[in-house]
Amino acid sequence: MRPSRLASRRPLRRLLGVLAAVVGIAVVALVAGAASPSGHPADHPVARSAHSVAPAGDAARGSSGVYLESAGGAAVRRASAAHPERAIPETAPLPVAAFDRPIAAYRRYAGRDAVAMAAPAARLTAALRRGDRGAARTAWTAAYRRYLLLGAAYGALGALDDAIDGTPGGLRGGVHDPAFSGLHRVEHDLWTGRRPASIVPAAQRLQRLVARLPARVRTVEITPLDYATRAHEILEDAQRDFLSDRAAPWSSAGVVATAASVDATGVVLGTLRPILQGRGDALEPVETRMGQLRGVLAGIRRGHHGTTPRLDALGSTERARLTGALGAALEALAAVPGTLETVLPPDVPKIPESR
Fold first, then answer.
1. 36-65 pLDDT, tens per residue?
2. How many domains does the chain have?
3. Neighbouring-strand partners of residue 66
4. Bridging pattern class, strands 65-69 and 76-80
């Protein structure tokens, strides 16, 4: 598994995010109540009439509300006058079935990509048998990129993912541990001077693992919550693991890996676009920032004679631009999960009255 998966922090981050949102709404409500009996002065920028946005939840029964700005959610949340302890999204929660088509489309894409990974894996073994280190490195990079293009499936492949994309982190024997296998076992050996012929068994094992991928990804279980967060998480991994050179330190393939992650994110967003359209304003900023990030990557390739360079070959300006564009894309993508909620946010705890 990649370093970010040695001890998954996804559930904890989601829990902390929910708690932060709950506390934030409660604080705003307390401050608003102190400002005026209605919760906001009449000219406050976030005070609006209940009929200014399509009603949802309690509003459908005619209750009025106060609109509260909410970071990381669906842009705006509304506390119902009838139930002030409940924060209601501006857009009604999506039915779970709304994700059926996006996830099915992704599975078809992932199945094709998994099949396509067999070709560079076979070229890798053949090059090693010939003793052609250069061709083997090229084939390894192509196979690694293909695997990263799976994107949304990485969290659901379990032991197969560990075997294909496992790192030596956490293994007692480190790079010498027999459990260290897959792409990074071959990467380590290819870039640290081992004889190509000695790497053939590891490459053959990788081929066998890759042969199991198509059937696995076509049936992988992906929940709506997981899928809604994948677009953000794929690039989050790129920022933390690929641009730091943690995930592929021997080949320094961080730029290739980041570009593959951008492509994988684009696939997920493409499947989600039909349900993102018309729900808040998350889609336009995301598409703008993703376009800018692709532009930076294209500029890097132009600056390196049409090839994607090693991460350690980037100039300081190139690296700064890539890091900045990736950060801006992540900021925009953070709004996507909240826009695609399938349940109402948790109730806001009541604030005890002061005596």
1. 333 333 333 333 322 233 333 333 323 333
2. 2
3. 79
4. antiparallel
What gap in Å lies between CA 145 and CA 120, rounded to an integer?
A: 10
Q: Which position has the higher pLDDT, 269 or 56?
A: 269
Q: What is the spatial distance between Cα 260 and Cα 297, in angstroms, rounded to a whole number? A: 11
Q: Of the candidates 103, 105, 109, 138, which has an alpha carbon nearest to the alpha carbon of residue 124?
A: 138
Q: Has residue 233 been placed in a domain?
A: no
Residues 227-254 pLDDT 10s:
999 989 999 999 999 999 999 999 999 9
Q: Return left, alpha or beta for 144; rule: phi > 0 is left, psi -120 to 50 is alpha, else beta.
A: alpha
115 in Cβ contact with 292 (< 8 Å) = no
Does the residue 310 lie in any domain?
A: no
User: Average model confidence (pLDDT) for the chain?
Assistant: 80
Burial of 184 (0-12, 13-18, 19+ CB in 10 A): buried
Element (H, E) at 237: helix 224-237
Q: Half-sphere exposure of residue 135, counting CA atoms within 13 Å on the CB side?
A: 12
Which residue in this structure is represented by tokens 């994607």?
A: 308
| DSSP symbols for 76-145 | EEEEESS-TTBEEESSPPPPGGGGHHHHHHHHHHHHHHHHHTHHHHHHHHHHHHHT-HHHHHHHHHHHHH
Q: How many residues does the chain have?
A: 355
- The continuous run of DSSP H or E covering 264 comes out as helix 254-276
Query: Does residue 208 share a domain with residue 135?
Result: yes
Domain interval for residue 197: 117-220
| Residues 135, 124: Cα–Cα separation, whole Å | 7
Domain identity same for 156 and 75: no
List, in sequence order, every residue forming a beta bridge with 67; answer none if it has no partner: 78
Task: Give the separation between CA 241 and CA 143, rounded to whole angstroms.
Answer: 18
Query: Which band of pLDDT confidence, cut at 50, 70 and 90, is reported for residue 24?
Result: very low
Residue type, 168: P
Residue type, 226: D
Which range has the worst mean pLDDT, 66-75, 87-96, 207-216? 66-75
Last residue of a domain, one of 167, 193, 220: 220
Give 240's DSSP letter.
I
Cα distance between the two ends of the chain: 55
